[in-house]
Amino acid sequence: MDNQKIITVTSPLLPGLEEFNEVLKEIWASKWITNNGRFHKLLEKELAAYLRVPYISLFTNGTLPLIIALQALRISGEVITTPYSFVATTHSLWWNGIKPVFVDIDPTTGNIDPNKIEAAITPKTTAIMPVHVYGKPCDIQHIQEIADKYGLKVIYDAAHAFGVETNGTSILNAGDMSTLSFHATKVYNTIEGGALVVHDEVTKKRIDYLKNFGFAGETEIVAPGINSKIDEMRAAYGLLNLKQVDVAIEARHQVAIRYRNALRNVSGISFFDDMPGVKHNYSYFPIFINADEYGIARDELYFKMREQNVMGRRYFYPLISTFTTYRGLPSAAPENLPEAHKMADSVICLPMHHALSEKDVERVLNCIIN
Ligand SMILES: *Cc1c(COP(=O)(O)O)cnc(C)c1O
Fold first, then answer.
1. Under a CB-based contact definition with an 8 Å cutoff, are residues 309 and 5 in contact?
2. 358 and 1 in contact (C-beta within 8 Å)?
3. Among 52, 113, 265, 303, which is most buried by a count of CB atoms within 10 Å?
């Protein structure tokens, strides 16, 4: 038995080393290693085609596009967002001096509950920042209706939603802008990396100024920009990974099918099914433990899994609203966020990646079913 091998929650999709070596030789020969080089341009073009979005700007990680989207749209005052996410979502508001206003989630999706957004709007509200958590699409129509009614911008943190489509349309076309993360732990990675998806050429140009110190030419600075350029090595790596990401997503899909088949009738364990009309990316496989029905509490199962070297993760526990920076905000009060607390207290994300073997999946399931 190779029960000792650690099964991690994810494993990075890596290009073939020899293939990568070949492109490195080309970069070395050209001596053009960053600043909108050949591979950078090519990756932007290929990603836009793959994701079926009109304009995309590459970034050095998935946090800076959030910060820059807020800058580009001149968002200020208060922004309505979800506590059920990775901390970067809310931190991007803090870095812009914006007050986050937390709204509870819809327990059927884990995403911000649009029915609760209007009650959180004040005269200072300027935007909504939802997250397609686990890559499950938000109710983009309802959110847009509210935004239009109150004149608000919508910036989607789509870090989990690489390649996700609803009825044949990329989810990244929703709202005013959407951000992606290409971190090593994500479905598609450039080691570190990210992107901002916008809908028109003028906005893309503005974003490209902002991520390059505000340079609009050799001597002209049009804004207090920052540096968030991705280099040629990671752009080339990203091009190689793009060629194999579909295969990786299909491998994840097969893991999801096995998990669902095995867990469907386990009392006290629930999970999300595919949504009708949605092309999913299987970025995460969260399960939710009802301790009364399952017999043991979430943390007990979590640590039991760890003892078997099965490393689930409790994404997203603790909630962002409980961290010291944010817990004093009125909207962070637990009474305001009961569904988010319930989900954060019951979740374990099971190992989910392209390289899990049938035996690995069996080992994960054996920890849960007995
Ligand atoms: C990963 C992630 C980010 C940030 O991405 P980095 O590339 O690590 O900076 C932002 N939001 C969410 C929801 C994420 O999961």
1. yes
2. no
3. 113
- Please say whether the beta carbons of 238 and 338 come within 8 A: no
Q: Which atom of ligand 1 is nearest to the CA of 85?
A: 13
* C-alpha separations of 252 from 11, 136, 189, 356, 362 in Å: 11, 15, 15, 8, 15
Pocket lining: 194 vs ligand 1, CB cutoff 6 Å = yes
Q: Could you list the beta-strand ranges (E) of 82-192.
A: 99-102, 125-129, 153-157, 165-166, 169-170, 177-181
| pLDDT tens digit sequence for 68-88 | 999 999 999 999 999 999 999
**289 and 346 Cβ atoms separated by less than 8 Å:** yes
Structure tokens at 228: 């968030």
Ligand 1 centroid – CA 101 distance (Å): 19
Q: State the pLDDT at residue 3.
A: 57
The architecture (CATH level 2) of 245-369 comes to Alpha-Beta Complex (3.90)
- What's the chain's Rg over C-alpha atoms? 21
Q: Whose CA is nearest to atom 10 of ligand 1?
A: 88
What does the block give as tokens for 141? 């129509």
pTM above 0.85, yes or no: yes
CATH match for 17-103+111-242 among 3.20.20.70, 3.40.50.300, 3.40.640.10, 3.40.50.1360: 3.40.640.10
Check pocket membership of 135 for ligand 1, CB cut-off 6 A: no
- Per residue in 155-193, pLDDT (tens digit) is 999 999 999 999 999 999 999 999 999 999 999 999 999
Which regions of the chain are under pLDDT 70? 1-3
pLDDT for 19-37, tens place per residue? Answer: 999 999 999 999 999 999 9
Would the CB of 155 count as within 6 Å of ligand 1?
no
61 ligand 1 Cβ < 6 A: yes
Smallest CA-to-CA distance from 101 within 74, 68, 127 is with 127
Where are the domains positioned within the chain?
17-103+111-242, 245-369
DSSP structure string for 304-334:
HHHHTTB--B-TT-S-GGGSTTTTTSGGG-G
Q: Is the peptide bond before 182 cis (omega within 30 degrees of 0)?
A: no
